[in-house]
């Protein structure tokens, strides 16, 4: 708003300028188009995976779940590098195909295409569908579906007319988050889409940073926020009609083993898809961190590559005695400290909000609030970062130089995830159970402890995992707010990769690999968390 | 509910900030060191020993705030103008200089150190922004590629448009990348605003590749990193740092720089004292320090930029392999500020459409 005031031609001139420009509409059109396409593709990949995770127990399931969560937190610079190592002009797939088919030029053009944008969005956001829909689905009473089949519905009828309507709230909530992420996409568009594609977010960055046209940037930000708000309102209207209180079942009842051949084939296919789209790029990145392109001298073969641990060793050495040198252990400690703070903050703020939303389901205030909660996700990171500078400058809250800014900014992003995870779960608890407990003499505290908490324990864990990963991978706000002495892992990676030299690049990839391991281990542990008997449910 | 949420956030924030050590509040007691807050971009770095030398000499504690890339950091300083929270801003370059000066974030300081610094670096006659370092954006090439393909390496900008070098060049987008903008300015300085777009049309006909940022161009497309483009827009320091950082000792760097006929653009970075500082004397001492040989000699290995103070000695390897162009293309900072948008739009129209 402040930036609008900087406009010399009055408050409305920038609106007129923006709305008269064909670039604005073209950009908005492309932003919408790629976001819709990306969301549909993500659903297509994610829903079968959610089905598998929610219905079956198999070896390596926890590991696979943790692995599929890692893409979500990888910095875009590193992801772009990973996709290039795999699919770039000299990526392994292109080189392999050139050898195999005797081609002179790389057959696959991946970078700087719309396909690259879509694939990267699926790579990033599939985990949202897997977690949110999967957790909800795993509590559905299988007997509902069995009843439909008994009554003569075939497999597809049962899915279409019974399962999908029941799942709709969770699917809608997950799809909305995926859509908003795709709609406000920045790094993926910039680094993998190339210079021919621009979303509103990219345009806002260009107007703010390159041109310092703050009035125009503000108008575009408002346009972006208006869009995300409208979609959220649409969602809340939709959800009002879809939410049903359900009988939730323990995982012991809903989970089966893969026994039939048919189920094994389907499961194999789903796992293979997830593996190719989500894990292969990460694996190629990790492999690249162990390989040196040892061709520095004229006369040597270009692709004589060798296994090396040099990049990992170099991470611990402060070659230049830099004041900001961050050994990997410190960066990991800082990142984990921020992540834990974010989990605590986001859960303690998000839980009451979700409770309020689910209890007062029908009031218009609650719907408006529901939509407002999504604002931090729909707001441009550039705007948000600068907003902190403008908004938090008056004592007693001059936090602009405070270490607290980082976990606060992370919490702001994680908060909508917590609310979106908890609200559907809370709404699906049948009021009768609570009433019964009250009638039998339970205090509200006891109702919460013995009814609500056990029933939504899985959703709390999912929310915690989201908050954890969001904080661990967050780069935009952190880079604006962090103190260089307290670099997080993504900041340290960025510092390395923006310097010339193979040793710096190699270290960036090595540190990214370490980030993957830390994140994977963190998610694995949170997944295993059991609060007494609660997590058992 | 929303306001309650805000207040609970606030309460938690206040509580936590009360717990944290009061690092940011400068104390005026004579014994305790004063704190100097230096705002900068995220490429800033310095040796611990150098910073400690300043701190002990002045009984001060220097705290750095890295605020994103150059443009972002500058925007932050401008938006905080009415209530500045830092004392000094370092890192504005000549492509952003006019924005900083016209927004009036700096106060003039005629440092005695300026006498040692060549006037070609001193672009602000009022001494609000003082030069600290320089680096040239140039086309660089992979010498091995040209040996293997029996091809004469290009010598100047004109060569890049010749059919011999078709498909070989990758540049960065001036809308999103600082070296990209510098290269656009190179062509404007060299060909003039009436001719530079014709030159870009010939580059397009020669299949120039455009990337949005330097990392993609250098680490994905450049042949040395495993790509298929042997010519990249990058920095004149690349050969020297290739030798310095080589895992196996090198005698000749594989990367070479094209410096002929004004094919490079000099980026100069400036420091300024922020209007409203409460530590003026300390801020002035810090600016003097940044221009002194102690700090200047430390910069190259920390930030890949070079001293403006001729009394600062360079590392011998760096000295040996550093390529300094005889002359560089020049565009006046005021002109850059006035035409940035129009130039970038015209470039986009010619190259990307």
What does this structure look like?
The complex is a heterodimer of chains A (537) and B (353). Chain A has helices at residues 2-5, 13-20, 22-55, 61-69, 76-87, 92-101, 114-137, 142-150, 155-183, 187-193, 200-210, 214-242, 251-254, 261-288, 310-315, 328-359, 364-372, 375-378, 381-391, 405-427, 431-439, 444-473, 476-481, 489-497, 502-528, and strands at 56-57, 256-257, 291-293, 305-307. Chain A is mainly alpha-helical and 537 residues long. The longest helix of chain A is centred in the N-terminal third of the chain and has 34 residues, at 22-55. Chain A is globular and about 70 Å long. Chain B folds into 2 domains: 32-134 and 267-317, Periplasmic binding protein-like II (D-Maltodextrin-Binding Protein, domain 2, 3-Layer(aba) Sandwich); 135-266 and 324-351, D-Maltodextrin-Binding Protein, domain 2, CATH 3.40.190.10. Chain B is 41% helix and 18% strand. In chain B, α8 (196-205) packs parallel to α14. The longest helix of chain B is centred in the last third of the chain and has 19 residues, at 333-351. At the A-B interface, α5, α11, α16, α17 and α19 of A face α1, α2, β2, α3 and α5 of B.
């Amino acid at each position: 708003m402040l930036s609008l005031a900087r406009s010399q031609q009055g408050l409305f001139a920038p609106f007129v300028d923006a709305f008269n420009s064909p670039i604005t509409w073209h950009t908005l059109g492309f932003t919408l188009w790629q976001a819709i396409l990306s969301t549909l593709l993500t659903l297509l990949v994610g829903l079968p995976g959610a089905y598998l995770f929610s219905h079956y127990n198999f070896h390596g399931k926890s590991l696979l779940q943790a692995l599929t969560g890692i893409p979500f937190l990888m910095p875009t610079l590193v992801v772009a590098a990973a996709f290039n190592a795999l699919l770039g002009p000299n990526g392994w797939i292109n080189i392999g195909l050139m050898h195999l088919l005797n081609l002179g030029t790389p057959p696959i053009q991946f970078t700087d295409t719309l396909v690259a944008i879509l694939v990267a969005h699926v790579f990033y956001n599939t985990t949202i569908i897997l977690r949110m829909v999967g957790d909800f689905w795993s509590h559905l009473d299988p007997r509902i579906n069995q009843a439909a089949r008994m009554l003569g519905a075939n497999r597809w009828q049962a899915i279409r007319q019974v399962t999908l309507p029941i799942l709709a709230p969770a699917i809608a909530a997950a799809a909305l988050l995926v859509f908003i992420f795709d709609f406000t996409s920045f790094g993926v568009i910039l680094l993998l889409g190339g210079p021919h594609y621009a979303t509103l977010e990219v345009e806002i960055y260009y107007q703010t940073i390159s041109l310092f046209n703050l009035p125009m940037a503000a108008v575009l930000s408002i346009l972006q926020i208006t869009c995300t708000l409208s979609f959220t309102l649409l969602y809340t209207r939709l959800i009002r009609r879809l939410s049903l209180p359900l009988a939730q079942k323990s995982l012991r009842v809903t989970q089966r083993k893969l026994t039939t051949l048919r189920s094994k084939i389907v499961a194999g296919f789903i796992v293979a898809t997830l593996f190719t789209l989500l894990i292969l790029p990460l694996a190629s990145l990790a492999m690249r961190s162990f390989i040196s392109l040892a061709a520095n001298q004229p006369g040597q073969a270009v692709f004589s590559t060798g296994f090396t641990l040099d990049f990992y060793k170099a991470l611990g050495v402060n070659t230049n005695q830099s004041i900001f040198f961050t050994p990997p252990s410190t960066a990991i400690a800082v990142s984990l400290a921020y992540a834990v703070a974010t989990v605590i903050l986001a859960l303690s703020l998000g839980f009451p909000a979700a409770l309020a939303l689910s209890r007062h389901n029908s009031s218009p205030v609650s719907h408006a609030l529901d939509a407002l909660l999504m604002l931090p996700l729909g707001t441009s990171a550039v705007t948000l970062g600068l907003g902190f500078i403008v908004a938090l400058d008056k004592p007693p809250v001059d936090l602009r130089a405070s270490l607290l800014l980082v976990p606060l900014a992370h919490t702001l992003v994680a908060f909508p995830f917590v609310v979106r995870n908890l609200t559907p779960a809370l709404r699906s608890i049948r009021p009768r159970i609570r009433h019964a407990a009250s009638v039998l003499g339970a205090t509200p505290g006891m109702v919460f402890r013995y009814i609500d908490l056990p029933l939504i324990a899985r959703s709390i864990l999912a929310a915690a995992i989201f908050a954890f990963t969001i904080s661990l991978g967050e780069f935009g706000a952190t880079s604006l707010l962090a103190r260089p002495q307290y670099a997080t892992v993504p900041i340290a990676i960025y510092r390395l990769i923006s310097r010339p030299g193979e040793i710096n690049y190699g270290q960036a990839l090595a540190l990214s690999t370490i980030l993957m391991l830390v994140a994977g281990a963190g998610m694995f542990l949170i997944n295993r968390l059991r609060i007494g008997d609660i997590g058992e449910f | 509910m929303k306001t309650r949420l805000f207040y609970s956030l606030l309460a938690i924030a206040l509580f936590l900030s009360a717990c944290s050590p009061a690092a940011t509040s400068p104390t005026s007691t004579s014994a305790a060191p004063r704190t100097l807050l230096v705002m900068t971009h995220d490429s800033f770095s310095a040796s611990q020993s150098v910073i400690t030398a300043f701190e002990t000499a002045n009984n001060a504690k220097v705290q750095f705030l890295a605020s994103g890339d150059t443009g972002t950091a500058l925007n932050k300083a401008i938006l905080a103008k009415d209530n500045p929270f830092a004392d000094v801003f370092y890192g504005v370059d000549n492509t952003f200089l006019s924005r900083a000066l016209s927004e009036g974030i700096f106060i003039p300081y005629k440092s005695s150190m300026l006498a040692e610094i060549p006037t070609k670096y001193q672009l602000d006659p009022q001494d609000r922004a003082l030069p600290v370092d320089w680096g040239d954006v140039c086309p660089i090439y992979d010498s091995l590629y040209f040996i293997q393909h029996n091809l004469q390496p290009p010598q100047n900008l004109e060569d890049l448009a010749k059919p011999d070098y078709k498909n070989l060049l990758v540049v960065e987008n001036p809308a999103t990348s600082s070296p990209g903008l510098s290269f656009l300015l190179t062509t404007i300085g060299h060909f003039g605003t009436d001719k530079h777009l014709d030159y870009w049309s010939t580059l397009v006909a020669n299949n120039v590749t455009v990337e949005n940022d330097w990392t993609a161009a250098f680490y994905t497309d450049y042949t040395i990193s495993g790509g298929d483009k042997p010519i990249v827009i990058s920095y004149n320091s690349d050969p020297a740092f290739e030798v310095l950082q080589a895992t196996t000792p090198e005698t000749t760097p594989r990367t070479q720089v094209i410096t002929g006929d004004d094919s490079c653009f000099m980026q100069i970075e400036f420091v300024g004292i922020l209007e409203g500082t409460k530590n003026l004397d300390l801020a002035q001492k810090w600016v003097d320090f940044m221009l002194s040989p102690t700090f200047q000699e430390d910069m190259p290995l920390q930030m890949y930029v070079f001293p403006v103070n001729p009394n600062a000695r360079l590392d011998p390897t760096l000295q040996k392999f550093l390529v300094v162009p005889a002359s560089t293309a020049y565009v006046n900072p005021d002109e850059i500020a006035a035409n940035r948008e129009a130039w970038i739009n015209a470039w986009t129209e010619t190259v990307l459409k």
